[in-house]
Amino acid sequence: MKHNIDLSQLEELISQTNTKLYFSEIISSYYNGNYRAAVTLLYSVVICDLVLKLQELKDRFNDSRAQGILSKIEQLQDANPTSPEWEKVIVDEMFASRYVVEASTKIHIEALRNERNLCAHPVLKNSIELFTPSKEAVYGHITNALTDVLIKSSLHGNKNMFENLVEDIEKNKTSFLSYKDLGKYLNSKYFDAIRNAEEEYRIFKKLWKLVFKLTDERCNLNRKVNRWAMYNILLRNRQYIERRIKEDVKILESQLNLDNKDIMKSIVRFFNISPASYRSLSADTVQILDDKLSKFHLENISLFKVGDIKTYTLGLNTIEISDSNYIISYLDETDNTHLIGQFAVNQFLGSRSYDEADRYFDEIIALRITSLSDDLLLKLLDGSNSNGQIWYRRKSRESNILIRDEIEKRGISVDWGKYSNLRF
Fold first, then answer.
1. Can you list the residues of the chain whose pLDDT is less than 50?
2. How many angstroms separate the Cα of 147 from the Cα of each of 6, 91, 154, 202, 424?
3. Cβ-contact 364, 326 below 8 angstroms
4. N or C terminus: which one in the chain shows less Cβ crowding within 10 Å?
């Protein structure tokens, strides 16, 4: 057998502190030629690690099924403290519950148990002998134990994980001010432990249906936070997730509820983050989707259809302020913050009514006035003097004073007499 797997690299992926400590003893025995000791300890560590994974599921994720398995093996131990029967039971129960132990894993653990028994008990032939496994066999057991059990998260294969995750973020959604806040939480509690792109995609696929199809009260209330969870899975493994979307596109596009405006907004926001997913859709679905964008007046924020984001945003006539706020958040999240000031000023200066000018200034300009460049401040001044919807409104004086104070604070030279329409 060629030793192609670097045991030290795999060892670093073990998350359980105690397991990693015990495993160092196994590696030491293996490299020192103590193969019986390595196999005997390895089996004990595998079983111990399975117990630790169940305890984590119970304590950290309130998993009732894990609690049930732990209770069962505790009862077996209490009934017969010297019997190893519980070791077989824990493997069987975790396999039946799809917790970490897969079919191949079960076979490997059973083979390890048999070899452990041979190493631990003398063989009666002409003389009493202790079985000695080969170096290659021990290496195989170690690599199997690592890849099958020790480096896997307790969440691996857990069919309750999706429900736990969705309930968790629903309960705590008010704590997340942005998808990035949610991402830190999900990565720390779930995804960094899973370390498996396909498992994350399975969660993503279930979220897709919740966010883009279903309209029950719970889905409506949690659509935003569930969409944020989708973003984070996508951003962790963009290339893999977008490839899997393309492979499953027939199923996924059948779950797009294109007749619901709120869901359409969520679809647009997702495709803005992942234009490749939009390009994976069939021509028929694209045609229907494009028609709905027009029907629901979502064209302005359909950035996934835009070629150059700078040309598009800076060339837009003034749009609804809610759409402007969304575009600003998009620019901020996609490393286009340098466009925000100019976009905001352009939108304000195109105000079509007094009320619109008030809202644009109060909600967008006032918050950013200190971060505007000198050139944009002067553009703001000139444009305010030129648009009657801006300079004639009741709140114009306080807005003009804010602009003037910022200009004077910076020491910019201005001929105020040119601005006859502005009141200070």
1. 1-2
2. 12, 16, 13, 21, 72
3. no
4. N
